[in-house]
Amino acid sequence: MTHTADQPQWWKSSTVYQIYPRSFQDSNGDGIGDIPGITSRVPYLKKLGVDIVWLSPLYRSPMADMGYDIADYQDVDPMFGTLDDLDELITQLHAHDMRLIMDLVVNHTSNRHPWFQEALDPASDKRDWYIWRDPRPGATAHEVPAGQRRGDEPNDWTAAFNGPSWTWHEASQQYYLHLFAPEQPDLNWDNPQLRQAIFEMMRWWLDRGVDGFRMDVINLISKPEGFDQPGEGSITSAAFGPHFHEYIQQMHREVFDRYPDRVFFTVGETPGATPHDAILTSDPARRELDMIFQFEHMGLDSADGDKYHIRDLHLPDMKRNLARWSQELAGKGWNSLYLSNHDQPRPLSRYGDEENHRYHSATAWGAMLHAHPGTPFVFEGEEIGMSNYPWSGIDQFKDVETIGQWRQSVTLDGQDPQAVWPAIVKMSRDNARTPMQWDATENAGFTTGEPWLPVNPNYETVNAQAQVDQTGSTFEFYRAMIALRKEYPILVEGDFELVEPDDPSMWWVRRTLGDQVLDAVANMSSHSIACAVPDGDVILSNRRHDNGDEWEYAALAPWEVRWVIHPA
C-alpha cells in the first residue's frame, strides 16, 4: 500500500517512530532485537497512532558503529533475521496503514564492504570509489599506535569519534579518509559510477516496498576541494560541500522520479545545517529532500559545542532556537521535530525532572515540541517516558563514540576520570539504546536471554504494559497528542508565534489558521507559576482537573501543559 501522486505532502500530518532494531524486541532469545520481534509489535505501533516507522540500520555489518558501518547494502545481517522477515514486516506495516523508511548510510561504508576491499588495490576500478591521498609533502611520519596521528596526514581533520580522519594503508602507501571511525571509509561521490551504484541500490529497496529513506549525515557526501580547510573537525569542514545539492537533485531524478505513481518520504541528517541550508534542501521546488534533521537545539546544553562539556539548559535558548527555525522555514521548507533518537540521551533525564515529576515533565516536553511546525519524530521508549541508565563503569558501554571519548579524555589527555565521568553518564548514546521496556517480567519483556545492553532497573514500573489503555499515562498522552495532529489542521498548517520568549519557566507557542488560534502553554519548571492561560477548549493537558471543565486560568502547576483552542 503506497501513497500516490495526489497526496504530495502526506508526511506533513504524519508522526514518525524510530526503531533501533537491536534494542526493540528480541524474538529468539539471543539478547538482540530482531525483525520478527518488530513485526510482533506492529499492533502496538498502530495503537500509538504513528504513520511512519524508521528503522536504524539492519544491513550486514561488522558492527564497529552498531550497523552504521555497512558491509552489504542489499542484505539483512543474520542477527536481525532475513530479507523475507523484512518483506513480512513491510507487508504488516502497510496492512496497518503505516509506512517504512530505511536508514540510508551512503557517506561511508564498512571497511569490510566488497567495494572497499577491491579499492585497497590501487589498480582496481573501484579505487576511486573512496578518497585516497598521499602523505602531506614535507611532513615526516612518526611511528605511533593505531588511531593516533603519524604527522604526515593530508590535513589535520579530527574524526567524529576522536583521532585523525585519515588512516594509513601501508600496502599502497596512501591514506584513506574517514570522517567517523577508521572502519568507516568515506565514499567518493565525485565518482559518477559510485553514484549510479548507490542509486541502483536505492531503487532496489523501493522495489521491495520501502517508502523512503532517512539519510545518515547526507550533507557530508560532497567533500571540499583540496582538503586544506583548517582543523575545526572533519564534520564542520565537510558539511554542504560544493556539489551537495547537485548530487541530491540527481538522486531525486534518478531514484524517486522513476516512480511517478508513488510519493516517498525523505529526511536528511545534516550536522551543521542553518535555516538557509534547510530551505535549499527542503524547498519542494528544488526537488531534493522533504526535510532535514538540524542539530542546533541539541547543543544548547553544552558549554562550547562539545556535548561532553555539559551545562544546564537555559529554557529561553531552546524556545528561541526552535522558534527561529519555525519562522525562517515558514512557506519555504519543512522542519523535523525531535528531542531524542539513537544518538541522543533520553530527554526526560536530560531536560525534565525525572525524580519528582516524571510523567508531567516527559509529557510537557513532548507536547511543546509537537506544537511547533514540522513533522514530529518519536524515538522508541520516549512514549512511555524511558530514562537514562544508571551507569556504574566504563566497561558497561558498547558505543564507539562513548568509548572513544573516554579514551581521548582520560587515557590520552590525562584528565581526571571523576571529572569526565558525569558527562559520559548523562550524554552517552547508549542511554538511548538500552532495551525497550515492555512489561515487568525479567528483562522487561525484551528478551528471554542475556540482553546485549543492560535493561534499566526502573522497568518494573516504567513499561508499556503498565501504560497502554491507562488514563493518565505517558503512552496515552502521546497517543492523544499524535491523534490531534490529524484532527486539527492548525497544528500542520498554522502560522507560528513565540509568546514571552524571555520567560525562564513558561513556554508559550501560538498557532493561527484562519479564525482559529491554538495556544500551547507549559510550565517547564518544578514550581507553580502565574500565567494568564487563554480561555478556550482545552484539547490536551497532562493535568486532571477534578472540578469538571473548570480550569484555573491564572496559574500552571509544575510541568503542566495545555493546548487551548479558541477563536482568533
Summarize the entry for a quick read.
The chain has 17 helices and 20 strands. The protein is α/β, with parallel strands linked by helices and 568 residues long. It starts with 15 loop residues before the first strand and ends with a strand.
Portion in strands:
15-25%
With strands numbered from the N-terminus, the spatial order across the biggest sheet is: 11-10-9-5-2-1-13-12
* Low-pLDDT segments, ≥5 res: 1-5
* CA radius of gyration: 24 Å
Question: Can you count the helices?
Answer: 17
How much helicity do the residues have? 25-40%
Main beta sheet: 8 strands, parallel
Number of strands: 20
The residue-averaged pLDDT reads 94
Distance from first to last alpha carbon: 39 Å
In terms of structural class, how would the helical and strand content be classed?
alpha/beta
Principal-axes geometry comes out as globular
